Records
---
Amino acid sequence: MSKESEVLARQVRLHCLRMVYRGESGHIGSMLSAADILAVLYSGVLNVDPAAPEKADRDRLIYSKGHGGAALFATLAEKGFFPKEYLDTYYKDAGKLSGHISHHIDGVEFSTGSLGHGLPVACGMAMAAKQSKAGYRILCVVSDGDLNEGSSWEAIMLAGQHRYDNLTMIVDYNRLQALGASEDIIDLEKLDVKLENFGWSTLTVDGHDHAALEKAFAKLPLQDGKPTAIICRTVKGKGVSYAENDYRWHYGGITPELYERGKQDIENMEY
Amino acid sequence: MRKAFNKELLQIAAERNNVFMILADIGYGEIEPFAEAHPDRFINCGVAEQNMTGVACGVAMSGNTAITYSIANFPTLRCLEQIRNDVCYHNADVKIVIIGGGLAYGPLGISHHSTEDLAIMRALPNMVCLAPCDIPEAVAATRAMMEYHGPVYYRCGYKGEKDIHDRPVGKFEFGKAIEVKPGKDLTVFFTGTIGYNAKLAVQEAARRGIDCRLVSMPCIKPIDREAIIRAAAETGKIITVEEHQLSGGFGSAVAEVLADANVFCRFKRMGLPDVNVSKIGSQDYLRDQYGLGVDAIIYEIMEMSKK
């Protein structure tokens, strides 16, 4: 029998495929890449409550890769933050859910869409939490593209300097970006070494292995006095055979035939 | 003016324990008292204005008021997208304070001039735009800004500004003009410290028999529509004066009010022409060189006053 988070991840993938298909939109690769990370975070890791989405002591999750926001919308709907029917309105006229993640919906902490915005805001929340001695944690999911932005590195330097150990950066590290392989555009390797040199503790895990993710998230911060980076090695398009590891699925649209094939792939996916 | 601002802010930070100052390595000689009094509410992000603005937004979204503070266009144009997407879209309680509005840092050159800021900041939803003209106005505006919840752009002067108001400013209200001098022949509206040149010009015009109304507009957004429409009706002639590009700034905002209200009057905007300020010199020198000297304002008043 599948674990709760694995059931959730499969549902999130199916929702994303359907939302992108019905919405005639893109970014399916980015959504599928992060589905397991989100499913594990929302299956007992984060202190959040769909009945009280703004409770004061909630953990703050900033989703900086806003283009893959449908994965977070789907996760939140599955967890009961808002009705699942909202997912049908994704990308539609008068819809409830926009193509990039928006705080106008319960459970979403912060709107993003232009890269490099999440980490600075997460740093500010970490500073404020330290100042008020609040115990909640701040987590920020970033992408490869996010880490091309100078503003992300401004925040990485600041968090290391001020030892924000209440801050965790989760890197959805699929090594593909809009126009190709990261190693051909801006190679971030060795990302763990870079971050450690900036004062962070790092752990690299398989971003689709739920047990490994759970274990990683269970011991935050990795080290007192340092911000944490969980580098999740992921596959862009994970779970849909034709989209896996192909940068063209950053933007690619889904035909009726591809929708059916994708559904089959996700339903047959093994953990 | 920056001293007056910092003094008032320090006072407010002593009264309220949720006021944070978020810097990008600018403020030498002014910000130290805040940093010493409230080290846990102060952070220098280094020379990193995008991060400064994002951090301020995160601090504000955690139940606080955050001030970003730097020279001229550093905390606005360098991080405009953070202001738009993070601060304004989330209606975060961030106050963006610039020191050296207009040409105040004259000889330092164009990198240190802030001459497009009003046009850009007032275009952002949720943003209030303030530009006090003298120290009493600056102090009152600081207090009003801190009592308000939401994004505010505060265009501060630099140093040595002379008082423009002869009377106490009183309570500062957003969207309210402050009359410096009544008059019936023509109205001069100004925003910011260039108002001193407008005041001298209006005094000279009075000696020449023209009775000008002189009105300070420290709040560009929201703007005092009623004061503008009343001036058009009562004096029939309006001149706007701003230390800012003519495109989209204060004069444009006044013109929009008149056009939208279908009100017609003689109208002239005075501001910087559509050129890069490349001449070198003090604020007063550059004002003279680029058409904002006292004589230039007198000339426009007299031209408009011809039958």
Note: The radius of gyration of chain A is 17 Å.
---
Amino acid sequence: MTYVFLAGLLAVLVGLALFIARALKGPTIFDRLVAANSVGVAAIVFLALFGFFTGRPEFLDIGLTYALLNIVGVFAVLKFFRYGGLGSAGEEP
Amino acid sequence: MAEATIFNAEALFNMALLTGLAVLTFGIARLRNLFGVVVLASIYSFLMATVLVVLDAVDVAMTEASVGAGVSAVLLLSALHLTRMEEAKPMRSTLLPLFVAGVTGAVLVWGTLDLPDFGDPTQPIHAAGPDYLERTVPETGIANAVTSTLASYRGFDTLGETTVIFTAGIAVLVLLKRGTRRRNPKPGEGGDAL
């Protein structure tokens, strides 16, 4: 069973390399953003697989925290594009 | 056999992730678009958190992911609002900063030579471990030894760290609030509500 998780971890590492390559190449900012989000997802999957690989599945909880943090980052970036900054209160009622 | 597989695999993961970090660092240094730099820095933090998990420092990994990828990306985006999107061309030659950074890096590497070997069982950090593991539940009542060490046995150190981070956060808030006031000169609108 350990080797199954090892194979999964190696596959995630290959994916990470591809995401990093896309983030570095660009060419537009949105390519980089999607790549960053994908790295976040890959980090979560890596964390979960690594927990099972080393026999400590409690790491799944940390993966959940990473997912929540990813959402905060996405909201910040979207608000930046919509309002041009994070200081504004958003849409006036 | 399984133990050896896990150990070798961890070394492999570390090498792969650290290579990714090095490549990303060069990318960050070369990129002139500051928004792209913020995005790449957030990727860097996620990779760093993964490295720390592989190194078995889960609490540090949590901090790195929440502070590095979460909060500092948001703060840098806020700062980006107050400045320009493109990094200006350096006015002077970059050779001297490169030299200073190289010397600093060399000194840091030189400093690590003095550290004990990774996992050396004779060092106090490993030799004193069982003692703390035995004392942690009767003395502090906390089941997690990492938490009891951070919050109790080296509580003053943690208090100092928290003070530094708190001060930095207040400084950033004060700076951002001043910027908002200048943009909205009308009293009672925008500037007061952060």
Note: Chain A has a mean pLDDT of 80.
